[in-house]
Design brief:
Strand order of the largest sheet: 1-3-2
Structural class: mainly alpha
Helix content: 40-55%
Shape: elongated
Number of strands: 3
Largest sheet: 3 strands, antiparallel
Distance between the termini: 62 Å
Order of helices and strands: EHHEHEHHHHHHHHHHHHHHHHHHHH
Length: 436
């Protein structure tokens, strides 16, 4: 159920509900909804309301009603506007949001308006938000508008934000919902929303339903659905990987840029999602592309390495290096330690990518004491390398990697050498922890 705010400058703006927030009826209804007593709530709504489209006020925080209420200092200073919030709804909105199918059926048979939205969201919006497909079907069969906008500018498809709402989305499309409509605030399409939330089945449904024509459509932030998928938080890694693969197969541009000139690979690196990064690299993206602020994909993963330590960010770093990513300038290695000291695997990989790197004792101050103690063995070895000469083995590796450059990932596996040597050349296997 939605919230609607009204300014207090004019009393004519205030909605006069049939059942006010302080009434006995609303008190009883809220108690039954809280307890989940569907039968009793249904009986109350069907037997006691004046008419099927009655407006019910579930809450009202108008503090100005009380003449003795002190005026907040922020209002006097002009930092707050004089607004209060009413939460308005109707019997059909309540039952649709709760999935009370039989009560929805009863109210519709009593000619309840399926498009009435006293609180800014229609019964169809509410049913889609809750993933109640039986209610969605009833509402559509009784004339609910599948393209009606809520007060915040979203159509019912935009409310299909959970796995359980897939059938709701299918029904909406079958009844004429326009798949490429955008939200008014962010200009997101349904495909943007599903991709961001990691809803693979929804993405497949929308693509088959016409969204493929807008697969590279940008929202207000310049995000395409692929960028939204790479930067989103919904779904597990496997689902997100399949989702992005599907978008790429259907023509999503892997080099699309948002308003900050960040590409999908920047977003994937910031999430330290090495499999997604490898998918994008296989699609031919520029491993050294910079965003508006000059940030490289490698910098993105280094900045978030400790945040996503459980995702093994060194695997993302290794994938980038093996595809020709430019390494960090030696002068900035101390900053890398500041960001990534808690992930020594990353430090080891980066150190192995230089022909030579003079280890500075002053870098020790960039490592928090607790981190140093946790990884004392590694850092003791690391700082003991100051002034030492790199091994001939490392120099040979560096020379071969420089020769193959961005083709390391593809060319080194083809060399007629033992697998252990290939792993060493690709900064992988048991050699990945070596600082020699």
């Amino acid at each position: 159920m939605s919230v609607q705010s009204y300014g207090c400058r004019s009393s004519s703006q205030i909605c006069r509900p049939d059942y006010a927030a302080g009434s006995r009826f609303v008190g009883c209804l809220k108690s039954l909804l809280t307890s989940g007593d569907e039968e009793a709530a249904t009986t109350l709504l069907t037997d006691e309301v004046k008419h099927v489209d009655a407006i019910i006020e579930l809450s009202n925080d108008d503090w100005m009603k009380e003449t003795t209420a002190p005026i907040p200092p922020q209002v006097l200073l002009g930092l707050w506007t004089l607004e209060y919030t009413q939460e308005l709804t109707s019997p059909l909105c309540i039952t649709s949001s709760r999935g009370y199918t039989e009560c929805v059926r009863y109210l519709l048979h009593r000619r309840a308006d399926p498009n009435a939205a006293p609180g800014g969201r229609s019964p169809l919006h509410e049913a889609c938000s809750g993933g109640h497909d039986d209610c969605v079907q009833l509402l559509l069969e009784h004339g609910a508008n599948p393209n009606q906008r809520s007060d915040d500018g979203r159509v019912p498809l935009h409310f299909c934000e959970t796995k359980s709402s897939l059938r709701c989305a299918e029904l909406l499309l079958q009844h004429g919902a326009l798949v490429n409509q955008t939200t008014e605030e962010l200009q997101d399409t349904s495909l943007h929303i599903a991709a961001r939330l990691g809803l693979l089945d929804h993405v497949e449904l929308y693509l088959h339903g016409g969204a493929i024509s807008a697969i590279n459509c940008k929202n207000l932030d310049g995000e395409t659905p692929l960028i939204a998928a790479c930067g989103g938080n919904g779904g597990d890694g496997n689902i997100r990987l399949q989702l992005c693969q599907l978008l790429l197969e259907e023509g999503a541009d892997p080099e699309a840029q948002d308003q900050q000139e960040r590409r999908p690979v920047h977003h994937a690196c910031r999430k330290a999602d090495h499999r997604l990064v490898e998918l994008l690299l296989a699609a031919g993206v520029d491993v050294n592309a910079t965003d508006y602020n000059g940030v490289l994909p490698l910098s993105c993963v280094l900045q978030s390495a400790e945040l996503y330590r459980e995702r093994r960010p060194h695997l993302t770093v290794r994938a980038l290096l093996n595809h020709g990513a430019r390494c960090v300038y030696p002068e900035a290695f101390g900053m890398v330690l500041r960001y990534c000291s808690g992930v020594p695997e990353v430090i080891s990989l980066l150190y192995s990518s230089y022909l030579s790197l003079e280890v500075c004792s002053r870098w020790r101050q960039d490592i928090p004491e607790n981190v140093f103690q946790t990884h004392e063995s590694f850092y003791t070895t690391f700082f003991s390398l100051s002034g030492t000469v790199r091994s001939l083995q490392h120099l040979c590796r560096f020379t071969l990697r420089k020769h193959f450059n961005s083709q390391c990932y593809h060319s080194i596996p083809l060399l007629p050498v033992p697998a252990a040597i290939k792993d060493y050349l690709l900064l992988a296997g048991e050699w990945s922890d070596s600082l020699l």
